[in-house]
Amino acid sequence: MISEELDEKVNKTNFRAAMERYYICNSNVGDFAQSKFYESRISVYRESCHSDETAKNRSPTTPTNSDNIQPEKRHDLTDAPKLRNFHNRTNELATLKQWILTENTCIVTITGLSGIGKTTLIRQLVADIQDNFDRILWRSHRKFSTLNALKTNLIEFFSPPQPKQNLSILDYLRFHRCLIILDDFQETLTTGEFVGTYIPEYKNYGKFIKEIARSPHNSCLLLLSWEKPIEIANLETENCHCHTLQIQGLRESATELLKGKKFTDEDRWLELINLYSGNPLWLNIIASTIQDIFNGSVAQFLSYSYLFLGDLKPILHEHYQRLSESEKLVMQWLANQEIGGNISSKPAYCSANNDFLGAIQSLIKRGLIKKNVSKEGSIFTL
Predict the structure, then answer these.
(1) Are residues 30 and 60 in the same domain?
(2) Which site in 34, 134, 149, 315 is 20 to 30 Å from 69, CA atoms measured?
């Protein structure tokens, strides 16, 4: 009779897993007290299915068959890139694994400029930790015009073929350990304002993120973005199991990238890497120029009087267009400073202190300027 009701073959070894699946489809999953009560009833049944003699003969550390049963895994990485050559990001990987697997962090935001390696890093991370999750879904936000469209896609992925009850995303996050990767999240954020402000039609993302951060579950939402949403910054101050990792450019490890280019003047490679901030995409683009015009000579390229951008211009222009007017003024000011700019010597056209300091802070969060500490105070450079 149980098999007929659950529409699947049920025996002693799969009873618990089958009943849990039935329970999630026929009850209020958000009620954790009921869930714990139900779990205790399953435990009683499981114990009754084994004889006293079997219990005596079994080692205390030997798991039962029902303990070995794992939920059916469902992973959808169709929107994820292929695994590519992975440059040394050992520290970043270790940090992310600590946050996600050990600390059960609910939301992790990965920020950084385009081409810096966010997607490549997370693709490698998923390959390393995928066995720890029942559900993994990778999506690019460019495919969804509204939050409701995203939610519908998530629920379609999480739901069984014939769901018996409409459940919320939070219900699924509680019942299964899920890993959701949402790439290109900067598409929800507006241009022309300080970092992290939502486009009006995406404002409801703030509430959605807060619900995931503040609700009890063992799932994780990974946001890949050029910028960090304001809600994430606020949740981090509340200690709501949220972390942000800002990806920096490669340094010495970027020499491995250049070795495949057959460049000469290896003693100048680090200079080239630093000039283009160790950004793998930028270095690959500039590499074409060095090969085409300078026959692979890094020294000849570096002797050129001006910083060459070439095909980098449209990429940098896209970032520049997202800035507020105050941020653009600060960028222009810093571009004219030989050794960087000090806040105490801010230009006259940055008259409003609030706008000036806000612009500095916003540019740091975008990864477009750096802060260096000296005897004279904080020095900011591009």
Answers:
(1) yes
(2) 34
The secondary structure element, H or E, covering residue 170 is: helix 169-175
User: What is the distance between the alpha carbons of residues 354 and 325, in angstroms, rounded to a whole number?
Assistant: 13
Closest-CA residue to 333 (of 321, 351, 318, 315)? 351
Please enumerate in sequence order all residues whose Cβ is within 8 A of that of 264, keeping only pairs 6 or more positions apart, or say none: 296, 297, 298, 299
Q: Is the pLDDT of residue 222 over 90?
A: yes
Q: What is the DSSP letter of 189?
A: B
Burial state string for 243-259 with b = 16 or more CB within 10 A and e = fewer than 16? bbbbbbbbeeebbebbe
Rounded to an integer, the average pLDDT of 48-67 is 40
Using the structure block, give the residue that is written with the tokens 């402000």: 197
User: Both 305 and 328 in a single domain?
Assistant: no
Residue with tokens 């009701």: 5
- Asked if pLDDT for residue 130 goes beyond 90, the answer is yes
Q: 241 and 261, same structural domain?
A: no
138 and 279 share one domain: no
Pick the more confident residue, 275 or 59: 275
Contact 263, 242 (CB under 8 A): no
pLDDT at residue 44, as a whole number: 33
Are 299 and 225 found together in one domain?
no
Whether residue 52 has pLDDT greater than 50: no
Domain range for 147:
74-246
Tokens 């500095």: give the residue: 360
pTM, to two decimals: 0.79
Sign, CA torsion 105/109/112/114 = positive
Which candidate, 233, 230, 110, places its Cα nearest to that of 181?
Answer: 110
Q: What is the pLDDT of residues 147-201, one digit of tens each?
A: 999 999 999 999 877 666 788 999 999 999 999 999 999 999 999 999 999 999 9
Q: What is the DSSP letter of 202?
A: G
Does 146 lie in the same domain as 173?
Answer: yes
In the listed set 246, 262, 282, which residue is the last one of a domain according to the structure?
246
Hey, CA dihedral for 327, 328, 333, 334, is it positive or negative?
positive
Query: What is the token pair recorded at 223?
Result: 């946001």
335-343 LR contacts (CB < 8 Å, sep 24+)? 335/382, 337/381, 339/379, 339/381, 340/372, 340/379, 340/380, 340/381, 341/379, 341/380, 341/381, 342/376, 342/377, 342/378, 342/379, 342/380, 343/377, 343/378, 343/380
The reply to whether 39 and 188 lie within a common domain is: no
